[in-house]
């Protein structure tokens, strides 16, 4: 049961506040002065303090400061007859949850208290310090409790104890590489190397050399022997991201490697034994690519010995609270911040948002919000949600724009929604990746670089 402390030197106000709090089914403590309020705070560690601003001995701002020293997660609501800008600003800067003016409006008071308690429930349920520590301690965590995620837990358990080839399919930003890393680190390969290759980032010639290595003199610029990723992976895992992007010619060579369990360096004559497990991923439907002759059917069947489908974030919105807390732990550490209170209205807004960029987009939006946050509360006002920005732009800008400006806006929106994953953005725009690079340069677009 939650604890609420009410501090006011006016006995009639104290009784009124306690009466209004009866509906909340909480343990309510009261103090007739600031000194007694601090003593009760030190002893009881209340979830919420409701305190008058001006009192003879110790005022509400001092109680707020001391409460935050005792436990930074204690929420404080300031109540005062002196409703003026300076004290309001100071209270919020010190971390007050809200500020209520006298005479107290009963409905408004109950609404603010309910918001505070809901925030504390979110905070208590998801932002406990032990959970934050766990999030930071394990780099490879698949967050969620929905049936879709629990099914992936089971699949990882089944496949991590052997070396079968795994195909991970799902939208951009759904955690395909994370799942590959969890498979690797959960079973017999955990002590061996994990090597990831982005197949969409390199030309056919460079990718072949990257995968298989080359011998000195194999081509112009090959001044020494080089080990490929298959060799560097040893007995561990090689993860081929965006496998759908490799050429038909390279597909033939990869098929042979999987079938024969050996490969040769580019320009080499000696066969090298393949020891690594192969995990591949794609955000495209390989079965459809096979139908259209863009992907070899025999390779497709070799890759999909075991298939994992990653769900879009929109299909598992119930996992968003846990994801928020997981990312906040990481973001707070990276940015040296302490945003650890998430009101329910913020969670609801995130759960109702259309996540085009999936989990990756959620992490980006949370990072932006933490940078903008002025206290430890992640208020919904700090969230820069793209579809809301688009709505505001559409409503506020009724003037006609040029075709060039429309093109720039559209390309920029697609890049932002894919977290500047240029391969994915080019696919959505239905243009070549080289064309996208040219457009980015011509239009002067800037963002997080991601091949």
CATH superfamily placement of the largest domain = P-loop containing nucleotide triphosphate hydrolases
Number of distinct beta strands: 14
**N-to-C terminal Cα separation, in Å?**
51 Å
Count of discrete domains? 4
How big is the Rg? 28 Å
Helix content: 40-55%
Overall pLDDT score: 84
Biggest sheet strand line-up? 2-1-3-4-5
Output the CATH topology of the largest domain: Rossmann fold
* CATH domain class of the largest domain: Alpha Beta
Helical segment count: 20
The low-confidence runs, each spanning 5 or more residues with pLDDT under 50, are 123-138, 389-398
Strand content: 5-15%
Main sheet specs: 5 strands, parallel
- CATH architecture level-2 label of the largest domain: 3-Layer(aba) Sandwich
Could you characterize the architecture of this molecule?
- By secondary structure, the chain is α/β, with parallel strands linked by helices.
- The protein has four domains: 3-126, Rossmann fold (3-Layer(aba) Sandwich); 147-309, Rossmann fold (3-Layer(aba) Sandwich), CATH 3.40.50; 313-388, Helicase, Ruva Protein, domain 3 (Orthogonal Bundle); 399-443, Homeodomain-like (Arc Repressor Mutant, subunit A, Orthogonal Bundle).
- It contains 20 helices and 14 strands.
- The protein has helices at 11-20, 34-44, 60-70, 85-93, 106-126, 129-137, 147-159, 176-186, 204-212, 229-232, 248-260, 286-291, 297-303, 320-335, 344-351, 358-372, 386-396, 403-417, 422-429, 433-443, and strands at residues 3-7, 27-31, 48-52, 75-80, 98-101, 166-169, 194-198, 213-214, 226-227, 237-241, 262-264, 271-273, 277-282, 306-309.
- It is elongated, with a radius of gyration of 28 Å.
- Residues 123-138 and 389-398 have low confidence and may be disordered.
């Amino acid at each position: 049961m939650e604890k609420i402390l009410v501090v006011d030197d006016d006995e009639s106000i104290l009784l009124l506040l306690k009466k209004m709090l009866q509906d909340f089914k909480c343990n309510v403590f009261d103090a007739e002065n600031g000194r007694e309020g601090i003593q009760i705070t030190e002893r009881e560690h209340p979830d919420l303090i409701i305190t008058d601003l001006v009192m003879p001995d110790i005022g509400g701002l001092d109680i707020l400061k001391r409460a935050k020293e005792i436990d930074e997660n204690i929420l404080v609501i300031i109540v005062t007859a002196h409703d003026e800008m300076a004290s309001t600003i100071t209270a919020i800067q010190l971390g007050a949850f809200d500020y209520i003016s006298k005479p107290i409006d009963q409905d408004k008071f109950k609404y603010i208290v309910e918001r505070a308690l809901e925030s504390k429930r979110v905070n208590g349920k998801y932002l406990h310090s032990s959970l934050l520590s766990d999030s930071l301690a394990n780099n490879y965590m698949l967050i969620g409790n929905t049936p879709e995620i629990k099914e992936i837990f089971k699949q990882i358990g089944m496949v991590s104890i052997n070396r079968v080839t795994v195909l991970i399919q799902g939208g951009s930003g759904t955690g395909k590489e994370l799942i590959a890393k969890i498979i690797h680190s959960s079973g017999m390969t955990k002590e061996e190397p994990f090597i990831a290759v982005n197949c969409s980032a390199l030309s056919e010639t460079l990718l072949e050399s990257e995968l298989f290595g080359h011998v000195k003199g194999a081509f112009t610029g090959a001044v020494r022997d080089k080990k490929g990723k298959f060799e560097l992976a040893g007995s561990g895992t090689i993860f081929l991201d965006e496998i759908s992007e490799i050429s038909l010619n390279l597909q033939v060579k990869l098929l042979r490697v999987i079938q024969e369990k050996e490969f040769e360096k580019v320009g080499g004559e000696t066969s090298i034994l393949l020891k690594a497990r192969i995990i591949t991923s794609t955000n495209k439907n390989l079965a459809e690519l096979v139908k259209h002759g863009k992907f070899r059917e025999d390779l497709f069947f070799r890759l999909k010995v075991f298939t994992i489908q990653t769900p879009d974030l929109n299909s598992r919105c119930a996992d968003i609270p846990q994801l928020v807390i997981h990312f906040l732990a990481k973001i707070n550490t990276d940015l040296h911040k302490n945003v650890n209170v998430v009101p329910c209205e913020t969670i609801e807004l995130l759960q109702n948002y259309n996540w085009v960029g999936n989990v990756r987009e959620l992490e980006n939006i949370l990072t932006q919000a933490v940078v903008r946050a002025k206290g430890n509360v992640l208020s919904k006002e700090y969230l820069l949600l793209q579809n809301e920005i688009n709505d505001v732009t559409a409503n506020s800008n009724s003037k006609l724009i040029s075709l060039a400006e429309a093109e720039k806006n559209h390309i920029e929106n697609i890049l932002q929604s894919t977290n500047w994953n240029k391969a994915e953005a080019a696919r959505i725009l239905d243009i070549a990746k080289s064309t996208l690079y040219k457009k980015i340069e011509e239009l002067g677009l800037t963002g997080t670089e991601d091949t």
